[in-house]
Amino acid sequence: MPEVTLADVQAARDRCSDESVVRTTPLERSRSLSSFSGGDVWLKMEHLQRTGSFKTRGAYNKLVQIADEFDRVVAASAGNHAQGVALAATKVGVESTIVMPENAPQAKIDATRGYGATVVLEGHDFQAALEHAQSLAADDDIAFIHAYDDPAIVAGQGTLGVEIHEKGPDIDTVVVPIGGGGLIGGVATALKTLDPSIRVVGVQAKAAATVPESLDKGFPVGIDDPRTIADGIATGGISTLTFELIEEYVDEVVLVSDEQIANATLLLLERAKQLVEGAAAASVGALLSDELDVTDETVVAVLGGGNIDISMLQTVLTHALSDREQLIRFRVRIDDQPGTMGELSSVIGDLGANIRSVRHDRAVEDLHVGEAYLVFEVTTSGAGHARNIIDAIESRGYTVDRLI
Q1: Would you say 53 and 78 are in contact if contact means Cβ atoms under 8 Å apart?
Q2: What is the rounded distance in angstroms from the CA atom of residue 271 to the CA atom of residue 285?
Q3: What mean pLDDT value characterizes the chain?
Q4: 299: helix, coil or strand?
Q5: DSSP state of 176
């Protein structure tokens, strides 16, 4: 039997009753996503949690139980777990040290310090930070707080599942992102025990997917270098604890691409007016994909966090706009003569598009002497508008190559 039960989750719910630490987050219907998916879609707004993610639940449940035993706790994290542990430790009166990679976003470093932690920057990736954190916890008076490989952490995350069951309508399917498996492990344990008819679906980014192979082989399988815009679920693996919970309670796991995650992030901004990180948007990406059918079902998508770095947001939105052809980049082969840029800019402007940037490329092998490429980045209203711009330039005798 898995190590975490509904009784553990319910006990965690009692411990996490302080709304100044763990909030009961909203569950709201989305008409737009319902229309797009064919189901009745509800969003669990966990990105509105204290610290901006579900991680506070597990961290507080853990630290309340050990506050009398330890003077200090240590954790490793590049973001959400760091802030959850920092807040929980401050609330229970325990000092905390969070080890973060040296390239962690400054905003997340500042937020973690703001919740009361001492931040140590170590290594260029999470693995190096993790190893350093574990070395700091060698002292008997210091507890290491793992992000997901801990029954108390998992039970705390499971309180989110109890909230969904209590506050939601009659639910058919709940969609939960998977990183290390702590969130889905806890949520699935609660939901499937309370109502075995509920379908629990896990979502991973394709470039960071470890669960499908783990389930095929019967044990946790990791990858060394997960690369995805959904950095919050790029853990590179799950633990034995979370593997057993997933195997026991999760009905299926679907994979989504970075393009689908980016489009879901933009759609949530446009239609639901919610800014979430890529890891959270993965659940909505799954709803809108061909991999998951929720037609005529009542479905809850968990938005697990909203701590998106601004530079990452820019990258995500660029991905999404490019996929919609609302941002296009193309090059035009020209005779390098005065007035050509002005002519082409006028064509683009007359069609109501905006030029974000333009440059000359002259040092390209396939160009003849006296030729150049003009490379335009242009915002449009969509695919039809983009096609009209290309057609108008080509009608003047120019050769156009789409770059994105």
Answers
A1: no
A2: 14
A3: 94
A4: strand
A5: E
Spatial distance between the Cα atoms of 205 and 294, rounded to a whole number of angstroms:
19
Q: Which of 225, 235, 230, 209 is nearest to 305 (CA)?
A: 230
Cβ count near 45 (within 10 Å): 19
On the 0-12 / 13-18 / 19+ scale of CB atoms within 10 A, 397 is: exposed
Residue 387 makes CB contacts below 8 A (sequence gap 6+) with: none
Q: Find the length of the chain.
A: 404
Q: Which amino acid is residue 144, in one-letter code?
A: F
Write the pLDDT tens digit of every residue in 185-204.
Answer: 999 999 999 999 999 999 99
Phi and psi angles of residue 148, each rounded to the nearest 5 degrees, phi first:
-150, -15
Question: Both tokens of residue 342?
Answer: 């002005």
CA atoms within 13 A on the CB side of 193: 20
Pairing of strands 72-76, 40-45: unpaired
State phi, psi for 155 to the nearest 5 degrees.
Answer: -60, -40
Strand bridging mode 199-205 / 173-177:
parallel
Q: What angle do CA 180, 96, 82 make, to 5 degrees?
A: 35
> DSSP letter at 213?
H
pLDDT 10s digits, 253-266: 999 999 999 999 99
Helix (H, G, I), strand (E, B) or coil at 304: coil
What span, in angstroms and rounded, lies between the C-alpha atoms of 382 and 386? 6
Q: Is the pLDDT of residue 2 over 80?
A: no
Contact status, residue 282 vs residue 292, Cβ threshold 8 Å = no
Instruction: Report the C-alpha gap between 250 and 35 in whole angstroms.
Output: 26
Percentage of the chain surpassing pLDDT 90? 85
Beta bridge partners of 204: 255
Phi then psi dihedrals of residue 370, to 5 deg: 90, 0
Lowest mean pLDDT across 92-101, 305-314, 342-351:
305-314
More confident residue, 85 or 128: 85
Whether the CA torsion 275, 281, 283, 287 is positive or negative: it is: positive
CB 344 within 8 A of CB 393: yes
Residue type, 136: L
**Nearest-CA neighbor of 386 among 361, 404, 398, 362?**
404
